[in-house]
């Protein structure tokens, strides 16, 4: 399981700075508004941005989904020494380097990581509900709802794709 405690202090600091810069560039000067909007525990976000250990997979995935230009895998990639995504410009200009802070919030689309998508499709509904209860206890109701929404969206997309394939097979 992905946890910041499994990485060096340098790696955690690098991720913390990248998260803070991306959050601010997305128009969230203060952590609470960002945390509230994306269902992230405020204390966990504070620990993450401070480079502290103890931040788990649920928070890392949620932060990855929330930040523009990031995916669920981005925090792990940064912890492992990978590149920090450039901060997207918000007015149609090319992306800017981390550290630059555009003023307004970007338009976002969801990009689920392949690993989360696979787990969502392979896990039973009962196990998803158990995981959602655990998330609610650890990270709060909004994080729980975000998790369930993500799973539902992935399963709905898969069902639509399967139905489309069935329709193609039926046509002469």
Report the average pLDDT across residues.
Answer: 81
CATH topology of the largest domain: 434 Repressor (Amino-terminal Domain)
Shape: globular
Domains counted in the coordinates: how many? 2
Strand content: under 5%
Shape-level CATH architecture of the largest domain: Orthogonal Bundle
In total, the number of strands is 0
User: How do the SSEs run, as a string of H and E?
Assistant: HHHHHHHH
The CATH class of the largest domain turns out to be Mainly Alpha
For the termini, the CA-CA separation is 48 Å
Outline the low-pLDDT stretches: 90-110
Provide the helix percentage. 55-70%
Tally of individual helices: 8
Rg, alpha carbons: 17 Å
Task: Let me know the largest β-sheet.
Answer: none
Oligomeric state of shown chains: single chain
Classification by helices and strands: mainly alpha
Region (Disordered): 78-110
Brief write-up:
The protein has 172 residues and is mostly helical. The chain contains 8 helices and no strands.
């Amino acid at each position: 399981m992905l946890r910041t405690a499994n990485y060096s202090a340098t790696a955690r600091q690098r991720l913390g700075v990248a998260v803070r810069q991306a959050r601010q560039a997305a128009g969230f000067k203060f952590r609470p508004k960002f945390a509230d909007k994306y269902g992230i525990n405020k204390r966990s976000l504070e620990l993450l941005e401070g480079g502290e250990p103890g931040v788990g997979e649920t928070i890392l995935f949620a932060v990855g989904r929330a930040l523009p230009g990031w995916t669920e895998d981005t925090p792990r990639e940064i912890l492992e020494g990978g590149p920090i995504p450039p901060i997207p410009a918000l007015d149609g200009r090319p992306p800017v380097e981390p550290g630059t802070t555009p003023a307004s919030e970007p338009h976002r689309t969801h990009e689920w990581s392949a690993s989360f998508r696979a787990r969502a499709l392979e896990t039973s509904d009962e196990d998803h509900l158990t995981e959602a209860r655990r998330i609610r206890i650890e990270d709060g109701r909004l994080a729980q709802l975000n998790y369930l929404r993500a799973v539902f969206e992935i399963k709905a997309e898969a069902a639509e794709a399967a139905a489309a394939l069935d329709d193609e097979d039926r046509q002469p």
